[in-house]
Amino acid sequence: MQSKEKYMEVVRSFFVCYKPSTISCQLVIYFSLFIFHSSLAQSDSSVRIIEAPGINRTVQKRIDYARYSNGVFPGYRIQVNFSQDRNDANRIRTQFIGKFPNLPTYLPYHQPYFKLYAGDFRTKLEAVRNLKMIKKDFPGAFVVKDKINPPAIVNSGQ
Length: 158
Fold this sequence. Notes:
It contains 5 helices and 5 strands. It is of the alpha+beta class. It folds into 2 domains: 2-41; 72-148, 2-Layer Sandwich (Alpha-Beta Plaits), CATH 3.30.70.1070. Strands 1, 2, 3, 4 and 5 form a 5-stranded antiparallel sheet that branches. Strand 3 and strand 4 form a beta hairpin. Helix 1 (2-17) packs antiparallel against helix 2. The longest helix is centred in the first third of the chain and has 19 residues, at 23-41. The protein is extended.
C-alpha cells in the first residue's frame, strides 16, 4: 500500500511542476508513469543470470585457438624497470619474483634497453590495483598497454 501512495505522490508532484501542453507530451508522461508504476509493483528485486550451457566452452576454445595460433590479446602489464645492463635487469627481476611470486615476469630486449614487465592484465583497472602494491617496493613502476598472454578464466559459479 505504501508503494501506491508513493506512486500517487510522485504523480501529483510531477503534474504540479510540469504542465504538458500537447497530446504527445501527455502520452510520453503517461507511458513513463506506467513503467514507473509497474517497476514499483514488482516485489522480486533479485537478479538471475541464465547462462547458455556452452558459453564457458566457447570462451575456452577462443583462448585455446589464440594460444595455438601464437595469439596474444591486447591488455596491460606493469613496467617495473628498464636497464641497458642485462645482469642488472636480471637482478631486479629476481628481487621482484621474491616479493611477488604470483605475477609472471617478462624481460624483453627493446634496443637499447632490457625492460622488466610483470603481469597479464585484461583491464587497466586490474593493472592499477596491482600497481599500487608494486609501487611500495618499486616506486618507478607504471602501467603500459601491451600484448598479453590470456590469463586463466576463474569460474566462480561451479
